[in-house]
């Protein structure tokens, strides 16, 4: 079919035919064959690639009993019955990753399909992938460079290497026992040794490029290989040559390798002079990479204001150099991405944060880069935003421990005066007014769960400022926070849920969470009512649930179904005054539900406890309890007798 719309509809119909029926799916596979699916996937139109990718995912879901819900798990019996079809399909996908005839978009889609299905929570196919030498193929893709064109080059996009790094990391996550990890390392070694045996420079360049990819994905594997004899030396020698390509890949590898403190020290002792020399290069691509290398080494002390690896004032100069690359419209997006990466390290320094937040041009350029949708720029942009909002965890330091550390002559990190709460709030307000929410909405499409966690941290920091919550809702923040509160890392889910509860406190729930969202937001809020959560998180969740419970009977029913009532009750026994008050007020709104009244009518002392709360010293708690009791007794004769 020549008409693209009709063709796309056809592909989508095939996908729908395969939904929820193993028999139909098998018939489709027999009738069309796996090569047909790979053929329609091989296209440079994003819409067609997405439709074909979705179609293949539906087939895998149906054969394994998975569905699109976050907590979905495969059906082991189905997986066993359809093992032949699943293995054939995934093997074909793995083999086609290194095909020279497919488009870059198709390659990305195939690697994403592998990444989504190898996990032990999905089809648990990671070990099979290692056995069929799939890692070597992924390493081959990881070693490709867009700048390096020759006859048998693969077509890749600017996001391919990032997606491959995430895929390699996802496979490594599933190597949960030592023998499997050894096999993974052997497969990577096999690829690297095969390349280093040949004397050509191109092979060495490819090794360094794939090593950079490993350092961005399965870090432990990357570090093991960098620590091998002669590896770091080879990279530094390449950085010292006059060949631009070698300088570029060596620079990128040095940046990726400088992630552990012990590695940083050896790189500072051997590599700083080389990086400084490269920064004098006439080629902008080399200069910006050398600059990022210096930025990363210079930020070794993190947020500790007392550690300065370089001379005073040098971080501000480096930040100024990054800014020049970032705001120059003549530079290509890749240059600007590197400039933001430099800033993501330098913004650990509070002086740089203040300089950057006052520079509207630079902030605007960074947010525009975030909205471009380039996967490689997600992490640097989000990290810079986390630093600007100070959205990282601060461990509570016991004063006695500080005294003990001083006595033991142990180093104590110092906070910068520009990292006080007033300065942080001011920075959050500037970012919100510059449209950071729209940028975060685009960035949240990333596959990386760690990046999503960082995005949730930024959202939570912005929602901590009451006047900014309306802006977050207007620009679609609440909509993207919901899925992130249900799926992702444990911390990420917690931050997203806290941001949602903050929105639910100050904005009418029907406006903040229109339609079905009002019901969906309940689960993440109830999750915050847990002894492991901080008191503030639980308090904010109770206040948001109180507002939601006043909206409609449907929502109250959902709170009951999610086990919210018992959790709310447990906080009514809390010693902390604010928590007890918030829980009692929340229960007052819940009393409107017939299901809750039935609970109070049962053989228990719930009504008695409400009566006792009416005598609380705190007036608000007493009023809420009295209101609840009044409604309860007006609707239930049993409770009146009690």
TrEMBL record:
It is found in: Cytoplasm. One of its GO terms (molecular function) is Hsp90 protein binding. InterPro entries: ARM-like, ARM-type_fold, UCS_central_dom. Its main location: cytoplasm. Keywords: Cytoplasm. It comes from the Eukaryota. Residues 112-297 form the UNC-45/Cro1/She4 central domain. One of its GO terms (cellular component) is cytoplasm. This is UNC-45/Cro1/She4 central domain-containing protein. It comes from Homalodisca liturata.
